[in-house]
Amino acid sequence: KQEVTQIPAALSVPEGENLVLNCSFTDSAIYNLQWFRQDPGKGLTSLLLIQSSQREQTSGRLNASLDKSSGRSTLYIAASQPGDSATYLCARGATNKLIFGTGTLLAVQP
Amino acid sequence: SQTIHQWPATLVQPVGSPLSLECTVEGTSNPNLYWYRQAAGRGLQLLFYSVGIGQISSEVPQNLSASRPQDRQFILSSKKLLLSDSGFYLCAWSSGLAGVETQYFGPGTRLLVL
Protein backbone atom coordinates (compact mmCIF):
# COMPACT_ATOMS: atom_id res chain seq x y z
CA LYS A 1 0.00 0.00 0.00
CA GLN A 2 1.35 3.38 -0.96
CA GLU A 3 1.20 5.54 2.14
CA VAL A 4 2.34 9.01 2.99
CA THR A 5 2.43 10.01 6.65
CA GLN A 6 2.93 13.45 8.14
CA ILE A 7 3.94 14.10 11.72
CA PRO A 8 2.94 16.03 13.70
CA ALA A 9 -0.69 16.50 12.74
CA ALA A 10 -0.65 19.95 14.33
CA LEU A 11 2.08 22.29 15.48
CA SER A 12 2.03 25.67 17.26
CA VAL A 13 5.17 27.80 17.49
CA PRO A 14 5.99 31.40 18.47
CA GLU A 15 6.86 33.83 15.72
CA GLY A 16 10.50 33.83 14.67
CA GLU A 17 11.15 30.18 15.49
CA ASN A 18 12.68 27.81 12.94
CA LEU A 19 10.67 24.64 12.46
CA VAL A 20 10.68 21.31 10.65
CA LEU A 21 7.72 19.43 9.22
CA ASN A 22 8.12 15.72 8.54
CA CYS A 23 6.84 13.50 5.77
CA SER A 24 7.46 9.78 5.37
CA PHE A 25 6.51 7.43 2.56
CA THR A 26 6.59 3.67 2.18
CA ASP A 27 7.65 3.25 -1.46
CA SER A 28 11.11 4.52 -2.36
CA ALA A 29 10.36 4.25 -6.10
CA ILE A 30 9.05 7.78 -6.39
CA TYR A 31 9.17 10.29 -9.23
CA ASN A 32 9.40 13.22 -6.87
CA LEU A 33 8.25 14.64 -3.56
CA GLN A 34 6.13 17.77 -3.50
CA TRP A 35 5.15 20.16 -0.73
CA PHE A 36 1.95 22.20 -0.82
CA ARG A 37 0.35 24.82 1.37
CA GLN A 38 -3.40 25.01 1.99
CA ASP A 39 -5.08 27.96 3.66
CA PRO A 40 -8.46 27.31 5.34
CA GLY A 41 -11.22 26.69 2.82
CA LYS A 42 -8.86 27.23 -0.13
CA GLY A 43 -7.13 25.17 -2.77
CA LEU A 44 -3.53 24.00 -2.60
CA THR A 45 -0.51 26.08 -3.55
CA SER A 46 2.64 24.35 -4.71
CA LEU A 47 5.68 25.27 -2.62
CA LEU A 48 8.54 23.00 -3.64
CA LEU A 49 9.11 19.98 -5.86
CA ILE A 50 12.13 17.72 -5.32
CA GLN A 51 12.93 15.35 -8.15
CA SER A 52 13.88 11.81 -7.15
CA SER A 53 17.46 12.52 -8.25
CA GLN A 54 17.74 15.58 -6.02
CA ARG A 55 18.32 15.89 -2.30
CA GLU A 56 16.89 19.31 -1.60
CA GLN A 57 15.20 22.40 -2.96
CA THR A 58 15.08 25.92 -1.56
CA SER A 59 12.70 28.80 -2.03
CA GLY A 60 13.13 31.83 0.18
CA ARG A 61 12.72 30.79 3.81
CA LEU A 62 11.68 27.27 2.80
CA ASN A 63 14.00 24.32 2.33
CA ALA A 64 12.81 20.83 1.51
CA SER A 65 14.98 17.74 1.65
CA LEU A 66 14.50 14.24 0.33
CA ASP A 67 16.06 10.98 1.52
CA LYS A 68 14.68 8.17 -0.61
CA SER A 69 16.60 5.44 1.18
CA SER A 70 14.88 6.22 4.46
CA GLY A 71 11.58 7.25 2.85
CA ARG A 72 11.62 10.71 4.39
CA SER A 73 11.25 14.32 3.42
CA THR A 74 11.40 17.40 5.61
CA LEU A 75 10.20 20.95 5.09
CA TYR A 76 12.27 23.48 7.00
CA ILE A 77 10.77 26.91 7.58
CA ALA A 78 13.17 29.56 8.82
CA ALA A 79 12.16 32.54 10.93
CA SER A 80 8.47 31.63 10.96
CA GLN A 81 5.86 34.35 10.59
CA PRO A 82 2.12 34.45 11.43
CA GLY A 83 1.46 34.46 7.67
CA ASP A 84 2.99 30.98 7.50
CA SER A 85 -0.01 29.61 9.41
CA ALA A 86 -1.69 27.04 7.18
CA THR A 87 -1.88 23.31 6.55
CA TYR A 88 1.19 21.88 4.84
CA LEU A 89 0.78 18.78 2.71
CA CYS A 90 3.40 16.56 1.19
CA ALA A 91 2.75 14.31 -1.78
CA ARG A 92 4.82 11.66 -3.48
CA GLY A 93 4.76 11.40 -7.24
CA ALA A 94 3.59 8.04 -8.55
CA THR A 95 2.39 6.91 -11.97
CA ASN A 96 -0.30 9.33 -13.13
CA LYS A 97 -1.02 10.56 -9.64
CA LEU A 98 0.13 12.28 -6.51
CA ILE A 99 -0.36 10.48 -3.22
CA PHE A 100 -0.96 12.95 -0.42
CA GLY A 101 -0.35 12.87 3.28
CA THR A 102 -3.02 14.15 5.66
CA GLY A 103 -1.08 17.32 6.39
CA THR A 104 0.36 19.27 9.30
CA LEU A 105 -1.66 22.20 10.61
CA LEU A 106 0.79 24.94 11.53
CA ALA A 107 -0.07 27.89 13.74
CA VAL A 108 2.55 30.61 14.19
CA GLN A 109 1.70 32.76 17.19
CA PRO A 110 2.55 36.49 17.01
CA SER B 1 -0.51 33.03 -17.20
CA GLN B 2 -2.58 30.00 -16.40
CA THR B 3 -5.65 30.14 -14.20
CA ILE B 4 -8.06 27.48 -13.03
CA HIS B 5 -11.66 28.15 -12.10
CA GLN B 6 -14.19 26.09 -10.20
CA TRP B 7 -17.85 26.70 -9.55
CA PRO B 8 -19.90 26.85 -7.59
CA ALA B 9 -17.81 27.75 -4.53
CA THR B 10 -20.35 26.27 -2.14
CA LEU B 11 -23.25 23.92 -2.66
CA VAL B 12 -25.88 22.46 -0.35
CA GLN B 13 -27.85 19.61 -1.88
CA PRO B 14 -30.40 17.09 -0.59
CA VAL B 15 -29.68 13.38 -0.65
CA GLY B 16 -30.75 11.84 -3.95
CA SER B 17 -30.39 15.02 -5.98
CA PRO B 18 -28.06 15.30 -9.00
CA LEU B 19 -24.71 17.07 -9.00
CA SER B 20 -22.63 18.93 -11.53
CA LEU B 21 -19.37 20.66 -10.63
CA GLU B 22 -17.40 22.44 -13.30
CA CYS B 23 -13.72 23.19 -13.69
CA THR B 24 -12.08 25.19 -16.46
CA VAL B 25 -8.46 26.03 -17.15
CA GLU B 26 -7.21 29.07 -19.06
CA GLY B 27 -3.84 29.88 -20.53
CA THR B 28 -2.69 26.39 -21.45
CA SER B 29 -3.61 23.70 -23.93
CA ASN B 30 -4.00 19.94 -23.54
CA PRO B 31 -3.60 19.95 -19.77
CA ASN B 32 -3.93 16.84 -17.64
CA LEU B 33 -6.92 17.38 -15.37
CA TYR B 34 -7.76 15.92 -11.97
CA TRP B 35 -10.63 15.78 -9.50
CA TYR B 36 -9.84 15.31 -5.82
CA ARG B 37 -12.03 15.07 -2.75
CA GLN B 38 -10.87 16.23 0.65
CA ALA B 39 -12.90 14.90 3.54
CA ALA B 40 -12.27 15.92 7.12
CA GLY B 41 -9.41 13.94 8.62
CA ARG B 42 -8.91 11.81 5.50
CA GLY B 43 -6.57 13.83 3.35
CA LEU B 44 -6.79 14.40 -0.36
CA GLN B 45 -8.15 11.52 -2.44
CA LEU B 46 -7.78 11.38 -6.21
CA LEU B 47 -11.14 10.61 -7.82
CA PHE B 48 -10.57 10.98 -11.58
CA TYR B 49 -7.93 12.13 -13.99
CA SER B 50 -7.97 12.90 -17.69
CA VAL B 51 -5.11 13.14 -20.18
CA GLY B 52 -7.31 14.30 -23.08
CA ILE B 53 -10.82 15.02 -24.35
CA GLY B 54 -13.12 12.12 -23.60
CA GLN B 55 -10.42 10.21 -21.74
CA ILE B 56 -11.33 9.59 -18.11
CA SER B 57 -9.63 7.32 -15.60
CA SER B 58 -11.31 6.51 -12.31
CA GLU B 59 -9.27 5.88 -9.22
CA VAL B 60 -11.93 4.64 -6.83
CA PRO B 61 -15.35 3.07 -7.30
CA GLN B 62 -18.00 5.49 -6.19
CA ASN B 63 -21.21 7.33 -6.82
CA LEU B 64 -19.55 9.94 -9.02
CA SER B 65 -18.57 10.27 -12.67
CA ALA B 66 -16.44 12.69 -14.65
CA SER B 67 -16.46 13.99 -18.19
CA ARG B 68 -14.20 16.14 -20.32
CA PRO B 69 -16.25 17.58 -23.16
CA GLN B 70 -13.63 20.17 -24.14
CA ASP B 71 -9.86 20.41 -23.84
CA ARG B 72 -9.91 22.70 -20.81
CA GLN B 73 -13.19 21.72 -19.19
CA PHE B 74 -13.63 19.00 -16.61
CA ILE B 75 -16.98 18.14 -15.06
CA LEU B 76 -17.77 16.06 -11.98
CA SER B 77 -21.28 14.62 -11.81
CA SER B 78 -23.61 12.41 -9.86
CA LYS B 79 -27.11 11.21 -10.65
CA LYS B 80 -28.05 10.74 -6.99
CA LEU B 81 -26.03 12.23 -4.16
CA LEU B 82 -25.28 10.32 -0.96
CA LEU B 83 -24.51 11.76 2.46
CA SER B 84 -21.00 10.41 2.10
CA ASP B 85 -20.44 12.60 -0.97
CA SER B 86 -20.09 15.65 1.28
CA GLY B 87 -16.63 17.16 1.17
CA PHE B 88 -14.34 19.69 -0.42
CA TYR B 89 -13.82 19.01 -4.13
CA LEU B 90 -10.67 20.26 -5.78
CA CYS B 91 -9.82 20.38 -9.45
CA ALA B 92 -6.21 20.51 -10.57
CA TRP B 93 -4.18 20.59 -13.75
CA SER B 94 -0.65 19.74 -14.78
CA SER B 95 1.23 20.24 -18.00
CA GLY B 96 2.66 16.75 -17.97
CA LEU B 97 2.13 13.48 -16.24
CA ALA B 98 0.92 13.73 -12.68
CA GLY B 99 3.54 12.46 -10.34
CA VAL B 100 6.21 13.92 -12.60
CA GLU B 101 5.06 17.51 -12.95
CA THR B 102 3.64 19.74 -10.26
CA GLN B 103 -0.11 20.26 -10.09
CA TYR B 104 -1.97 23.54 -9.85
CA PHE B 105 -5.17 23.57 -7.88
CA GLY B 106 -8.42 25.47 -8.20
CA PRO B 107 -10.15 27.22 -5.29
CA GLY B 108 -12.41 24.24 -4.58
CA THR B 109 -16.12 23.58 -4.13
CA ARG B 110 -17.50 22.79 -0.72
CA LEU B 111 -20.40 20.34 -1.02
CA LEU B 112 -22.74 19.57 1.83
CA VAL B 113 -25.28 16.81 1.28
CA LEU B 114 -28.18 16.87 3.74
* Oligomeric nature of the chains: heterodimer
Largest sheet of chain A: 6 strands, mixed
Helix content of chain A: under 10%
N- and C-termini, Cα separation of chain A: 40 Å
Q: Give the amount of beta strand of chain A, in percent.
A: over 45%
Poorly predicted segments of chain A = none
Shape of chain B: globular
Q: What is the structural class of chain A?
A: mainly beta
Rg of chain A computed from alpha carbons, rounded to a whole number of angstroms = 13 Å
What is the number of beta strands of chain A? 11
Largest interface: A-B, 23 and 23 residues
Largest sheet descriptor of chain B: 7 strands, mixed
Run of helices and strands of chain A: EEEEEEEEEEE
Strand content of chain B: over 45%
Give the rounded overall mean pLDDT of chain A.
92
Shape of chain A: globular
Q: Helical percent range of chain B?
A: under 10%
The number of helices of chain A is 0
End-to-end C-alpha gap of chain B:
38 Å
| Order of helical and strand elements of chain B | EEEEEEEEEEE
